[in-house]
Amino acid sequence: xxxxxxxxxxxxxxxxxxxxxxxxxxxxxxxxxxxxxxxxxxxxxxxxxxxxxxxxxxxxxxxxxxxxxxxxxxxxxxxxxxxxxxxxxxxxxxxxxxxxxxxxxxxxxxxxxxxxxxxxxxxxxxxxxxxxxxxxxxxxxxxxxxxxxxxxxxxxxxxxxxxxxxxxxxxxxxxxxxxxxxxxxxxxxxxxxxxxxxxxxxxxxxxxxxxxxxxxxxxxxxxxxxxxxxxxxxxxxxxxxxxxxxxxxxxxxxxxxxxxxxxxxxxxxxxxxxxxxxxxxxxxxxxxxxxxxxxxxxxxxxxxxxxxxxxxxxxxxxxxxxx
Amino acid sequence: xxxxxxxxxxxxxxxxxxxxxxxxxxxxxxxxxxxxxxxxxxxxxxxxxxxxxxxxxxxxxxxxxxxxxxxxxxxxxxxxxxxxxxxxxxxxxxxxxxxxxxxxxxxxxxxxxxxxxxxxxxxxxxxxxxxxxxxxxxxxxxxxxxxxxxxxxxxxxxxxxxxxxxxxxxxxxxxxxxxxxxxxxxxxxxxxxxxxxxxxxxxxxxxxxxxxxxxxxxxxxxxxxxxxxxxxxxxxxxxxxxxxxxxxxxxxxxxxxxxxxxxxxxxxxxxxxxxxxxxxxxxx
Lengths: 323, 284
Hints:
heterodimer; A: mainly alpha; 2 domains; 0% strand; B: 15 helices; globular
């Protein structure tokens, strides 16, 4: 097609086109820059500049009435966080409590169900869909559903507990039950991790299992010496993303129990504290300092995990044999 | 390995028992949502378990469109969805293409920056961005939600595209270039048509992230009811304990948010898995 079009063009047009093509070839680097420019502009506006300005804000006393340059107060925000702010410790405790249960439990459920689904039993696709569908439910809808589901009087769970003769629980209004409720909600969405595990399990070469079977290995041996070691990169990936996401839990709590964090503020997670300081109390400088601390925690944790990962994560050649 | 048929059978019974029990537990909240969405108003406040509603109140579904501006919420949500899809299809693929195929000075540094931004939590950018958009008078408008999306500000999508594009054989690229195709032409005529699996996968992500976004609409549109999205509308409808009279309508609204997601995932499932596994099997 290209050729027939060219034949119809006049000589002068052709040379003009050739020249343009030559220019394109010579200036490939420029085109590279043009292609990444939208992303780079976004990086400056939405990543680099806000990140730097946030750091600056955290050293200032920027509040709602502040006009012009906010007053520089050095480390005052940080000393206040660590010495006076009772909600800092509380919200951090709540967040770590939530993480401590939800992250490992979700990993274990996702891994075990993926292992069972990988046994290639009949009807596997149906079960995979049933386990995965709750993860497709939008977070806002899932949270609203749980608000009803856990409702003390009219929710399913308590009515079911009454039916089997157990004591109903005030899931969302008793301080002891708020965090378990949040953990329950997070467990409902383990399907996303399950799918990632399932993809990992299906990429383990079959001949490894055959070799183990010939050597007389039992199912347990296959799991411990082949499946788990080969799955450590996937486990690591899910663990890291789970922790980073878990530290930033916000919407669920905001919708389920409101900005106060419920009775005795048992549900006040860290992001809620940051949100309240910025958008309810309008103490932007202080809130920026809180956010910097959360960033540092996530950053150090990521570095530590990546650094210690070579002790337990198996980046062998076994998987490369496949390709 | 030869198994005793009886142990094999016991094994299968155990497997199916676990899977079925697990699947029921997972589906109960959704089933309850559906059942509650079809209950009449006086049935939702009965303190007894009733999974199949009697009578079935189909009228709840048309009624929600009268009770809440669902059409407007949907239109507002679609504005964000469309911006997201545009960003995912044009600027993100161009950047992915440049990172995969065009050698320009500093490419590795830029790519390193791209990867680093994937690790940057949103919370450390939230407040400056809000103050910035407030300063230029963009709060209470779609601007802060549309601009990053239109610019393709998503390192994850660009990364996925780059991985996929690197898997397209060098020969195809070379021969197109020798035939006189410009970089733009190669991107449009060769790489885009060849990248349907990854395009489909990214489109599903883009749709669902835009559809589900809550924090950004809350901060920027919270005080402007005309621009509320479905997520904000649903949050507003949901009352705290004590105000349970509209539980059935809340569940109708939830179903309206869930059904499009289920449709998207149902049709995209195949592409989603092939797009992501294709990405996973390419090295580097």
